[in-house]
Each structure stands twice: as structure tokens, then as C-alpha cells.
Design goal:
about 0% strand; mainly alpha
């Protein structure tokens, strides 16, 4: 009763072994080391992007505060500037009607407003340099953030391309494994089961690779996309698999 299960497990082991040959162990270890370094760089870039974004936000906030102060000061200056001609007209009218007390009060108010205008002009002048510096800093921080973000995007795309290439290589290995089992002259039940398992796994891996290409728009990077990782046609191998020439492996 346990024979089918044991045979299935053996077939799976055989398919896995065939799809991951020992000659590729060193390459796999090298790929793992490269992937670890790439992951570390990716995380460092993510931190750099977060820091650059925070610095850019802070610079923009400081610039916005200075711009708000400048606009408020300019608005107040315009109010004073608009009021001065009105006071001058009212003062002249009071003097013409010999209301010298009213004319004197208006003249005093006009003098105070003129002093306010001068003070507001000085404040606007004082804000000019800090505003220029803040604008320059904000532009620099925005550029730093943009550059960091672009670099991170490139590295993220590189990671996706590496993932795609791993899937494509695995698909090629599974294709070879499937063909190896399917072409055995004396195909046993174990060889048939292993070939079928390799075929199913190949279909899954190829589908994952195709999904990755489509969802992440990797068409321009999919240089390994060829017919080698396409799932084998049922017409190609089913007859050979279902009708082995000999009942068992020697």
C-alpha cells in the first residue's frame, strides 16, 4: 500500500536531482553570495532614499516658512503703501477746511505708517538672502532624493532581473531533466513519474517567469526567454511516457 507513495517520493527526488546537477553547486554558491551583497546594497539604498526624502522634506518646509513670512510682509507693506495716499488726501482736505488739529493728526499717522513701510522694506531685504539659500538647499535636497530614488529603482529592477534569470535557468534545468527521463529507452514507472513531475514543475516555473515579465515590465530584460523553457507538448512525450518499452530500470 505504501509502494505508490514511495515511488512518487523517489520520482520527486530523481527529478529534483536531475534539475539541480552537482556541477552547478559552485555557481549556486556564487549566486548566493552575489545575491547577499546585492540585498545588502538594496537595503542601504532604501535607507539612503528615506534619509534623502526626509532631508528634502525638511528643506522644503523651511523654504515654505520663509516664503510665507515674505508673503505676509509684502502683503502688510502693500496695505501701508495703499493707506499713505489716502492719509495725504485727507490731510490736505483738513488743512483746506482749516481743521489744523485733524490735519496734524493725519500727518502724524502718515509719518508712522511711512516708518512702518521702511521697516517692512528692510525686513523684505533681510529675507532675500535666506530665501535664496533656502531655495538652493531645497533644490539640492530634491536632486539628492531624485538621484537616490533613481538608483534604488535601478537596483530594484536589477533584483527583478536576477530573479527572472534564476527562474529561466531553473526552467532550462527542468527541461533537460524532463527530456532525460522521457528519452530513456527502458522507461520505468519511476522514470515516467519523474518526467511527469519535471514537466509539471517546468510549467509552474515558466508561468512564474512569464508573470514576472508581464507584471514588472521586464520584456527588454528577458534575454533568456526562448523556447527552451516552454513546457513540453503532450504530443511530444506522452506516447513514450505512457508506453515504456521495458517495465523496469536495470
Amino acid at each position: 500500500g505504501n509502494a505508490p507513495a514511495a515511488e512518487s517520493e523517489a520520482a520527486a527526488a530523481a527529478a529534483t536531482s536531475a534539475s539541480t546537477p552537482g556541477d552547478d553547486a559552485d555557481d549556486s554558491n556564487g549566486d548566493d553570495a552575489e545575491e547577499a551583497l546585492a540585498l545588502a546594497e538594496l537595503r542601504a539604498l532604501q535607507v539612503a532614499v528615506a534619509e534623502a526624502e526626509e532631508a528634502s522634506h525638511e528643506a522644503k518646509s523651511k523654504l515654505a516658512a520663509l516664503e510665507k513670512e515674505r508673503d505676509r510682509t509684502a502683503k502688510e507693506r502693500k496695505r501701508v503703501e495703499d493707506r499713505l495716499p489716502q492719509l495725504d488726501t485727507a490731510k490736505k482736505a483738513a488743512a483746506a477746511s482749516r481743521n489744523y488739529k485733524e490735519a496734524g493728526a493725519l500727518a502724524k499717522e502718515a509719518k508712522a505708517l511711512a516708518a512702518d513701510r521702511d521697516a517692512l522694506d528692510a525686513k523684505l531685504l533681510d529675507l532675500a538672502v535666506p530665501l535664496d539659500d533656502a531655495q538652493t538647499l531645497a533644490d539640492e535636497r530634491a536632486t539628492d532624493y531624485h538621484d537616490a530614488k533613481a538608483k534604488l529603482t535601478d537596483r530594484e529592477r536589477d533584483a527583478l532581473v536576477r530573479q527572472l534569470r534564476v527562474l529561466r535557468r531553473k526552467a532550462k534545468d527542468l527541461q533537460k531533466a524532463h527530456k532525460s527521463f522521457a528519452k530513456k529507452e527502458a522507461a520505468s514507472k519511476l522514470a515516467t513519474a519523474a518526467a511527469n513531475l519535471a514537466k509539471v514543475e517546468l510549467s509552474n516555473v515558466a508561468a512564474k517567469a512569464d508573470d514576472l515579465v508581464r507584471e514588472q515590465h521586464l520584456q527588454d530584460y528577458d534575454h533568456d526567454n526562448d523556447d527552451d523553457d516552454e513546457p513540453p507538448s503532450d504530443d511530444d512525450d506522452d506516447d513514450q511516457l505512457q508506453q515504456p518499452e521495458a517495465p523496469a530500470i536495470e
